[in-house]
Here is the input.
Amino acid sequence: MSGKTLYDKLWDSHVVRNNPDGTAIIYIDRHLVHEVTSPQAFEGLRLADRRPWRIDANLAVADHNVPTTDRSAGISDPVSRLQVDTLDSNCRTYGITEFDMNDPRQGIVHVIGPEQGATLPGMTVVCGDSHTSTHGALGALAQGIGTSEVEHVLATQTLVQQKSRSMLVRVNGELGPGVTAKDMVLAIIGRIGTAGGTGYAIEFGGDAIRSLSMEGRMTVCNMAIEAGARCGLIAVDDVTIEYFRGRPFAPRGELWERAVAYWRTLHSDADAEFERVVELDAATIEPQVSWGTSPEMVAPVGGKVPNPFSETDDTRRQSIARALDYMALEPETPITDIPVDKVFIGSCTNSRIEDLRAAAEVIRGRRVADSVRLAMVVPGSGLVKRAAEAEGLDRVFLDAGFEWREPGCSMCLAMNADRLEPGERCASTSNRNFEGRQGQGGRTHLVSPPMAAAAAIAGHFVDVRTF
Amino acid sequence: MEAFINHRGLVAPLDRANVDTDAIIPKQFLKSIKRTGFGPNLFDEWRYLDHGEPGQDCSRRPLNPDFVLNQDRYQGASILLARRNFGCGSSREHAPWALLDFGIRALVAPSYADIFYNNSFKNGLLPVVLPEETVDRLFQAVETSPGYTLEVDLPAQVVRTPEGEELAFGIDEFRKHMLLEGLDEIGLTLQHADAIRAYEQRRRTEAPWLFAAREGSGT
Here is the structure.
């Protein structure tokens, strides 16, 4: 019999009951809650006269709707305000720990979970948000769920699921200078497609993954969902363990030692078998820029926008043509000829301290191009913001002409006031370039933080490696 | 949850691959704290020519005449024919809520994104998977025959065309059962409350840090 994959180990250790119909009841260790997908779940609980099963398994934060400008006057949009107030009220009612909008620890749910040690290796983690896959970087089984499942987890501390198939994406070798985890994951999605991971749990492995920091690993797993996979996974190693030492919610003392001993078993066995294996050579990955309206529509910065007429598959040809029309791009335009109107550095993909350092490195001593209407940095959490300020990164951004904002999801999905106007083109470190994602009629190009920073300075995309 | 057994209805074709949940229901409508009322904003950015905001009277907004659901022949459609990877993107359950609120009871496509697929079943919306070639053929049939209907028969696991052709589809046994019975999944899981407690008991011994995972735990 072959060995177990990391996914097998995490799954097996959380099975409460195998049902006769092929599903299993899976125990959930950590439930992260935010304001957008939880109100209907709490209402459902009340209507059915149920109570949360285990209060201390929940951690809540408002992130999608919060303003990134001065918050002292509260939220001006009454609809957004009601949603955030509803989260506050539900958390108060049930005694759920919440970092409210003015808490210094507030931030994007997928940034604060690991930052606080509230999500840990070996846990099952869920949240009513597809980017919950981020926490797989810790060696946790982390999945996004819908509101019905949020209610199910609140009421039972479990989910009823069928086991996914397993895929290994192995990235061999070493990334070149100026090439980041973001470029790696965009290249992976470009290779396997946005539905390539549907039905799979994807484990990312290989030397290039092992060499990444925790921040980089979170960037990769964050976008597993953009490849169609509900969860991404990375094995635990010393980098993981050192990351959690001393985090506020992490175990301490004797419990820490016991936890670490267990965490060290959280890797796929050498003889584990995967149903699908995809291999990439890190050295061949260039900085990536998305040109279309799906995250699989990416090109290396030295490349060109594709020509739909060279595509043989009808559906794909139509998709490319429609995307180019929406993006107002001519076929075969060199990527570096594409100008940008706005630049957004932030989101649960790329708003951690390392992302801000990498962007600041490019910007230091330079100015945002006059043609760029807005360049903004939205740190992932209050603590990331504070750490960046302690290093003087805020000055680097402000001196260059960037805005330095309060933490939240911001222009990744434009539920607050931060958005693109129709026709505006944005270099964005976020995760989705769907039509209208950053504002109706807005045009998103997904890039890494250094590539976004370089585009802000140049006014168009440039190869950050030679900038 | 409302049960789904059998449904015959007018078919509307949405001829695009990778339709994402941002397109199905744009983010500004996610600020609602209710489960209902999303129908008028289904596919808002494709359906209307102006910019939509919550609380508008959508009956007064300018419609995009090119969008399929605005065409006369598809008024009253309750089955949406779609392309591969329908429902990709965010986990928002507002997507199936909006489809149902609009009047869609079943979807037919070659594939769906995982979270959307799962969310649909929780709400009595049946996402039928048929092979790509069959879906191609249905797109042609809908295009050439105004008033084209399909019957989705869940117990028999077939889609019936007006000509009486039966297109078989697969579905997980548990999903089929839940849908046919319209079951409350939470209620079912709570029948195993003792098993959940027993699991917790064991884990408290095996992995106690998971239960002490609060700020300053272990100090």
